[in-house]
Each structure stands twice: as C-alpha cells, then as structure tokens.
Design brief:
This protein has helices spanning about 10-20, 45-50, 65, 125-140, 150-165, 185-200, 245-250, 290-305, 370-375, 385-390, 395-400, 405-410, 415-420, and strands spanning about 1-5, 25-30, 70, 75-80, 85-90, 95, 100, 105-110, 120, 145-150, 165-170, 200-205, 210-215, 215-225, 230, 235, 240, 255, 260-265, 265-270, 275, 285, 315-320, 325-330, 335-340, 345-350, 355-360. The protein is an alpha/beta fold.
Length: about 425
C-alpha cells in the first residue's frame, strides 16, 4: 500500500509517525509547499523571537529519513483526482496513492494581496514567513513594526517581535484584542494588561487603510483614523483560510466523519478538517494542536486496523508565549457569567443548565486544566463553581476534592497539580 500526505505539518507528521511505529512498511510520500522538515506552527514564533531554528522541528530535522519517507517539497498540491487516486502539483508532477491523508493546513488571508509585492510586508503563518521576516529585520536594522490584526495570530506576532526588542504598534478593528477568544469585559481586561506589561501602542477600532512604498520598500502605513506611522515592517495577520481547494474546490474546509474520512480512501485532519464539536456537536474547523494530533491518530488507527473513532473537537485557545501573562479560553460565552478577579488574574465561566458552557482565564493557568475537565465532562458545577474560581491559593479546592492535605500537597511525591493534570 502506498500512502501520500498532502501537507508536511503537525498532523501529517503525527500520522506518518503513528503508521511507522505501528508497523506500517509500505511506501509513504509527503507533499508540501515549503522546503522544511515537519515543524510546529506553535513554536515558530519563538524562532523569530530569537530561538535557534532547530527548535521548530519538534519531531527532528531528520524526520523524513528516520521514518523512511519520500519528501516532495516546495511544490504545492493543486489538484486531487479522487477517481484516479492521484494528486497533481504546481510543477506538473503526479503522485499516485492507495490512501491519501489530506492535511494541507491554512493560509493567511490578505485584504490587499498586492501589498505583499512591497518589501517589508509579510504574513505570519508559516516558517517561510518567519525566515523571511528574520532576514529582513537583520538586513534592514528594523527597530519597530506595525502588526495589523489583534486576533490570536496577530497578538502572537506582536509579542514575538516585542520580545525580540522591537517597538510595536498593534492595530485591531474590534473593541479589544483576542476578540474571538474572549468576551467584551475579559478582552478589555486582557488588552489593558498586555499594553501595561509590554508598552505596545494598541489601537482599537482601527485598520490599516493603505501603505506607502519608496523604491519598492515599505516606508509608512496609513490608518483608518487618518493618522500614519513611519515603519519598515508591516505584519498582516487578520485571518486565515483552509487550503481545501485542491480537494473540495473551495476554502470552506473538508467535512470528515468519525474515522476522519472525507471520502473513500481520503482522510482529512488539522486546519482543513471540518469536525463536530465534542460538547455542542456543531460542525466547524477547530484548528488547534490537540485536535490535530487526535485526528491524525484516529486516521492512522483506522487505516491500519479499521477501527477507532474521533470523539470530536474542542475550541480551546491558549496564549502563553513570550510573556508571563497567559490567556486561556474555550466554549461559548453565553449563559450565566460567574466572575472572579484579583490583581492580574481574571476568571470567568458561563453556566448553562448548571454546567460550564464556556470559560475565560486570564493571568495564570493554575486552574485551567481542571476547569477544562469540568467543561468537557459535563458535570454540574453551579453549587461549587464560585468557590472554585475564588480560591485565593488556587489549589485549595483541588486539595478538598482529591483528599490531599496541606502537608501532602507541599511535600514530596505527587502534588495537587500533578494529580489534576493527569
């Protein structure tokens, strides 16, 4: 049997690794539009912030050789012919398959694609983006940047560049940054604290209206409020689209069943997979690392053994890079809000029918794992959630429910956090 992957990212690498570790000896070809070994998109901003490039290859830069893979790199797949069981690439190459694993990822969306023709304007999605931005900063001695987009990727970009030492102007059209992973009050709390802790110039209800180029290089950006900022570097991070066109003909993602099958012989996973939500059942693209890993493992097990079922995705978001100020959220921000706040820490859950319908935790992660388990387990918590959220020492409630006294929790062996993390 010959297996072909469209994509060389986290989901594809996990899928291939699982096949090999479980005894698959057939031919494997991995097709990708970049020239790199499989890397983690979660880690690549650390490279831009100053970490060595080797750190992005979380399964090793020797992945292809170690797992006996034939790589077809820097040549994106442009068509999947399911009837003939082959893929075609931009260079004209065709690759036959017996089973296809489609994990082509997503790409940045640009309001003005022509801006990318100007040197100094970049997206912030791939390792190719990071390498190009790093080279540009060093060659042009860049000391400040404008980041257009205050969602997860935009804030990630702003924090990476800030950590590197650049002065940052962050421009976002909404009333708060991270507007898709927070509610209004939580987002405004996070926005204020991020500005306070980093010194970023955060401009809300604002967009980049145009750019100014001199000799083909960026020299300034113009904002929608009529002001402008001289800069050599603009990062555009206002949205992404699934790379589902080669298989589906549109960028709406690839619907998959519980075995991660999009159709006979074709599995889908990662940023392109449309799956049901584990709690609500609502179908969508839930592009997170844990979801992608579970999807890849489900597909590998089904291919090899004919069994296994994906339990559904959870829309958990975790921002905790470059700064000691994590922001975690999941679920829907509808229902009865229950809030606790002290200093830099802000916690809120939304209750529906006595169960957690969604939550936001800002400023620490000590409670996030436990709140997540309460959320996905669908336990009633309306009688205890206020005590849980307001625990001043964060772990008092954990000690109560696990039967751990103060001596055990602070002594040797398994501490309370260790128990709950399992």
């Amino acid at each position: 049997m010959k297996v072909v992957t469209v994509g060389t990212g986290m989901a594809a690498a996990e899928f291939v690794e699982r096949l090999r570790l479980d005894g698959f000896t057939g031919e494997i070809v991995m097709c990708g539009d970049e020239e790199f070994a499989p890397y983690s998109p979660c880690v690549i901003p650390f490279y831009l912030a100053g970490e060595p490039l080797e750190t992005v290859y979380w399964k090793g830069s020797d992945f292809y050789g170690r797992y006996r893979v034939t790589p077809r790199l820097a040549d994106p797949v442009v068509e999947v012919d399911a009837d003939r069981r082959l893929v075609r690439t931009a260079s004209g190459r065709s690759e036959q398959y017996d089973r296809l694993f489609y994990a082509a990822g997503a790409r940045s969306w640009y309001p003005r694609p022509d801006w990318l023709d100007t040197r100094g304007v970049f997206g912030f999605k791939t390792l190719s983006d990071m390498v190009a931005i790093d080279r540009y900063i060093r060659e042009h001695n860049v000391s400040e940047a404008v980041v257009f987009g205050g969602g997860f990727i935009g804030v990630d970009a702003a924090l990476a560049l800030w950590h590197r030492g650049l002065a940052i102007t962050l421009v976002h059209r909404n009333t708060r940054v991270l507007s898709q992973m927070t509610d209004e009050e939580g987002g405004q709390f996070a926005t204020g604290k991020l500005a306070e802790k980093t010194g970023m110039d955060i401009r809300l209800r604002t967009t980049v209206a145009d750019i100014v180029a001199t000799g083909g290089e960026l020299s300034a950006v113009r904002f929608s409020d009529g002001t402008a900022r001289e800069t050599k570097l603009l990062i555009v991070a206002i949205g992404v689209s699934p790379n589902s066109e080669p298989l589906r003909g549109d960028d709406k993602g690839v619907p998959s069943d519980r075995q991660m099958l999009a159709e006979a012989g074709i599995y889908a996973a990662g940023d392109v997979a449309v799956t049901p939500h584990a709690v609500t059942g609502e179908a969508g693209v839930y592009a997170t690392y844990p979801n992608a890993m579970r999807q890849a493992r489900t597909a590998a097990r089904h291919l090899l053994h004919g069994d296994g079922s994906y339990a559904g995705s959870v829309n958990t978001n975790v921002l905790k890079k470059h700064i000691d100020f994590p922001i975690v959220s999941a679920g829907s921000f509808t229902g009865e809000p229950v809030t606790w706040q002290r200093g830099d820490v802000w916690r809120r859950v939304y209750l529906k029918d006595g169960m957690i319908n969604g939550y936001i935790i800002i400023g620490d992660t000590k409670m996030s794992g436990y709140i997540y388990q309460l959320y996905v387990s669908r336990r009633r918590v309306d009688g205890t959630i206020r005590t849980i959220l307001s625990s001043p020492r964060h772990d008092a409630y954990y000690r109560q429910v696990t039967g751990c006294g103060a001596g055990r929790a602070s002594g040797r062996g398994y501490g309370v956090q260790g128990v709950m993390a399992g």
